[in-house]
Amino acid sequence: MDMLLILLISLFTLTFIGVVVGIILLIVRKERWAGIIVTGLSFGLGFCVLLAGLNVATATLFEASNNPFSIYNYDAGEDLYANNFEEDYDEDYYDDYTDVNFGEAVTIENGSTVTISKPELSQKKEGYEIYKVKVKFENTGSDAVMFYSEDVSLYDDTDDDYGQQITEDDFSGEVQPGEAKEITLYYEVFNSGPYDVEYDNYNWTE
């Protein structure tokens, strides 16, 4: 790129000299045709140099990532959006959950109290296992609240994965003030844990 710029500057200098020589031949020396030819060739060469210079400038701007639609940092060779997402994910995701002990009753924002027991092995199948989790959801507030048992998740710390809930008698609906729902949830898992249970902004663990 630097060599091309030097070449363009040199050609522009020769063009300027050619125009000056052509004007001298045409006006001072009174050599009409020679002056016209030299001046015309110089202007033609100058026009070509101008186009080439514009192309080089455009290419340089794109390489410097001045394109407003680009999400990449040319100099760093990195995806800025991806980096920002990873940083936000690392900082925010792990702060979403508050660890509590299995069997501990927790009052969540809507005024309900939730108690979750430690996951227990229910059945062993070929290639996978079924774990059960007992959940007590009690509306200790003054207004009816919604509870969806499918929002209770079994999380595998070892494999960083979630069990698949296969509960037949799950619950979805309103829970009235003073009413409690006690249900047992079942999950298919493919390893031996240990497991945590997540609900709302809390993580029940040992």
TrEMBL record:
**Taxonomy, superkingdom:** Bacteria
Which Pfam families did the record assign? DUF4352
Name of the protein in question = DUF4352 domain-containing protein
Keyword Transmembrane in annotation: yes
Report the residue ranges that make up the DUF4352 domain in this protein: 110-204
The answer, when asked if Manganese is one of the entry's keywords, is no
Q: Which UniProt keywords apply?
A: Membrane, Signal, Transmembrane, Transmembrane helix
Sections of the chain in a coiled coil: none
Q: Which residues cross the membrane?
A: 6-28, 35-62
